[in-house]
């Protein structure tokens, strides 16, 4: 094989590997399978013709390139669960190590070796490979891989909520931003940044909602191909990536943007039906049904003989129970968004919390008899007692309006993100809990 042949093989390998990874990441099984067969044909040709470039009479650079060429081809085509495939992967790993030793500046060899080590569970080894690239010069692919790997390490090797975990997540965000800096139009880099912000929110105790806003902004840029992108796949957009839609919908579900969350899971399912979207949608629909029916006063808990005594008690206590720096208000008078300086006294008429949801849900009533949904984060079950008067401070309100398969869900929701935003019986609640997603989405 001549050097010109090697260049041609490298170009063809880069093209097919990118094509295969694109199809595989997007759950396009038929396209991935067809491309895999093309990669197998190319691998056979490479193995047949590259041996003369690996001899001691060739330059270190040529030998390194010939050895490296095997790596990504074997990685994409070998079946790790098969004996022959496992043997081929071991051979690929050895070839990549030799290539990196012969030419330490061969970035592709280090990145591919990192991928193989990662698949084997050698996370530290994979990180060393990516660091061998990024420590020498900025590299978009290595930074993208490093961002994702740091989140994997945070989940696999650090206890939830520890400083060690937080450090890994901060490093993940740093590498994602480095990749964006190298190419602001690469949607995949923006996607990694969105995932890093989402992970950081939960790793740090879910106390900074701005992290989720930044995550959603990054996901939007990922879909468009940068903040100024037009959504074209050819110009960097990754709107055909099912994981983007699934994970963005996960964030939207957490911030209770139910309409876009349902649409996001629906889009993810269209792109990759194998994603666990149905369980997510069913859980949301169960809660939406409870909240919508409750706010409409459907059920025995909302009969006048049960609510009128509660209303009378709340109406009498409205003025006296307000903290000094707040003015008393009612559920109906609240505006969408944060109602600064306002407090509203309510009582829980129904516990609507679902078993697998991320928070506590209640249907509450105020002194005027208005019903609304209350969403409480960061508290253990039982921290909010139905017998107690709840004082909502600076209520954060959104009017939910979502439709799924002909059923419309329309109700007022008050969200409590932090314990300091609610008083139970006049005091701050006890039973603080870490959000359940804290160790899931890393």
TrEMBL record:
SUPFAM superfamilies in the cross-refs: TPR-like
Regions that span the bilayer: none
Full protein name: Tetratricopeptide repeat protein 5 OB fold domain-containing protein
Annotated Tetratricopeptide repeat protein 5 OB fold domain residues: 330-427
SMART domains: TPR (SM00028)
Stretches forming TPR repeats: 242-275
Originating organism: Micromonas commoda (strain RCC299 / NOUM17 / CCMP2709)
Record keyword Transmembrane present: no
PROSITE patterns, alphabetized: TPR
Pfam families named in the record: TTC5_OB
InterPro entries xrefs: TPR-like_helical_dom_sf, TPR_rpt, TTC5_OB, TTC5_OB_sf
Gene3D superfamilies to which the protein is assigned, alphabetical: 2.40.50.550, Tetratricopeptide repeat domain (1.25.40.10)
Entry keywords, A to Z: TPR repeat
């Amino acid at each position: 094989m001549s050097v010109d042949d090697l260049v041609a093989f490298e170009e063809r390998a880069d093209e097919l590997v990118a094509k295969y990874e694109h199809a595989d990441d997007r759950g396009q099984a038929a396209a991935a399978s067809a491309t895999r067969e093309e990669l197998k044909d190319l691998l056979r040709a490479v193995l047949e013709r590259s041996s003369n470039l690996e001899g001691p009479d060739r330059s270190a650079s040529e030998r390194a390139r010939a050895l490296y060429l095997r790596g990504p081809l074997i990685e994409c085509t070998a079946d790790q669960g098969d004996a022959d495939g496992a043997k081929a992967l071991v051979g690929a790993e050895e070839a990549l190590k030799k290539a990196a030793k012969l030419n330490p500046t061969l970035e592709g060899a280090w990145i591919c070796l990192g991928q193989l080590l990662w698949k084997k569970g050698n996370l530290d080894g994979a990180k060393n490979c990516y660091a061998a690239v990024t420590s020498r010069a900025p590299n978009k692919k290595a930074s993208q891989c490093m961002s994702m790997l740091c989140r994997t390490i945070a989940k696999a090797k650090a206890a939830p909520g520890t400083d060690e975990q937080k450090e890994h997540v901060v490093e993940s965000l740093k590498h994602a931003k480095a990749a964006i800096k190298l190419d602001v139009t690469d949607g995949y880099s923006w996607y990694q940044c969105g995932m890093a912000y989402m992970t950081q929110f939960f790793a740090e105790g879910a106390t900074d909602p701005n992290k989720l806003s930044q995550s959603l902004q990054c996901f939007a840029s990922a879909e468009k191909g940068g903040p100024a992108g037009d959504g074209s796949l050819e110009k960097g957009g990754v709107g055909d990536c099912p994981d983007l839609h699934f994970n963005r919908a996960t964030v939207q579900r957490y911030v209770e943007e139910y309409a876009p969350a349902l649409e996001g899971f629906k889009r993810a399912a269209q792109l990759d039906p194998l994603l666990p979207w149905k369980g997510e949608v069913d859980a949301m629909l169960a809660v939406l049904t409870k909240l919508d029916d409750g706010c409409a006063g459907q059920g025995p808990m909302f009969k006048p003989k049960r609510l009128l005594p509660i209303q009378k008690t709340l109406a009498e206590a409205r003025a006296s129970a307000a903290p000094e720096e707040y003015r008393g208000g009612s559920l109906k008078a609240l505006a969408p968004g944060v109602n600064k300086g306002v407090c509203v006294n309510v009582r829980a008429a129904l516990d609507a919390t679902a078993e697998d949801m991320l928070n506590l849900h209640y249907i509450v009533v105020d002194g005027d008899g208005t019903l609304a949904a209350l969403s409480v984060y960061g508290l253990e079950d039982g921290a909010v007692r139905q017998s107690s008067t709840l004082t909502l401070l600076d209520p954060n309100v959104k009017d939910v309006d979502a439709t799924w398969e002909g059923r419309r869900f329309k109700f007022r929701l008050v969200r409590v993100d932090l314990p300091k935003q609610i008083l139970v019986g006049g005091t701050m609640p006890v039973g603080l809990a870490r959000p359940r997603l804290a160790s899931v989405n890393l």
